[in-house]
Prior knowledge:
Largest sheet: none
Number of strands: 0
Mean pLDDT: 75
Structural class: mainly alpha
Helix content: 55-70%
Radius of gyration: 30 Å
Distance between the termini: 82 Å
Order of helices and strands: HHHH
Number of helices: 4
Oligomer: single chain
Amino acid sequence: MVSFESWEREGKEKDTADCMQAQTPQQRKANDKFKKAQDAKRGKPASEIKKKEEFKSPISPIWLGMSSKSFCCEGWSQIYNKEQNGAES
C-alpha cells in the first residue's frame, strides 16, 4: 500500500479507496440497515420521525434475580424433602 506522503510527493490526488480496508459482509449488512433507516427519516420533520422507545421493565433486575433464586431454591427443597420422606416410609 502506498502512503499519502508518497502520493503527495508525486503530485497525485489522495485516493481514499486505495487506503480503505474491504468491508465485511456483517459490516455491509449493518451499513445497509442504517442507510435504510436514515433514508426513511430524510425530509421529514422531527415530530414525524418514529423514535425507538427503550423497553424498561417495571421490576428491577435485582428483584427479579432474588425472587427467581428463592422460587428455584424453594422448589428444589420441596423435591428433596419429598424424596427424603418417601425413602423413610
